[in-house]
Here is the input.
Amino acid sequence: MGLLIAVIIFVVLIGAGFISQDEEAFFALSIVASVIATLFVITCIPGIIGGIGLLKRKNWARILILIVAAIDLLDIPFGTALGVYSFWVLLQDESAQVFSEGAKKTEVS
Here is the structure.
């Protein structure tokens, strides 16, 4: 979702600068759009890496997603709901067992 938001913000701000037909406004808005989009992408990278790790059942990914979920709690209302759900799922004993078994399988392979 963060990547989609980054693209939308970038396109809207660049488009606004283009529509204004003012060279200085276009330059300023392109810089602001690039900075904001870059910040959104940087904040999304840990979640993407953690999601890929969760799909491969890596134990480090479970810990990374718990950290990301703790940060997401501040993003009301959707981040809070996602963070609470992530804690609820990933802190159960069954989840810990699944991810520890996944780590053991990769060590044997």
Summary: The CA atoms of residues 73 and 84 lie 7 Å apart. The chain is about 85% helix and 0% strand. Helices lie at 2-20, 23-55, 59-72, 78-90, 93-108.
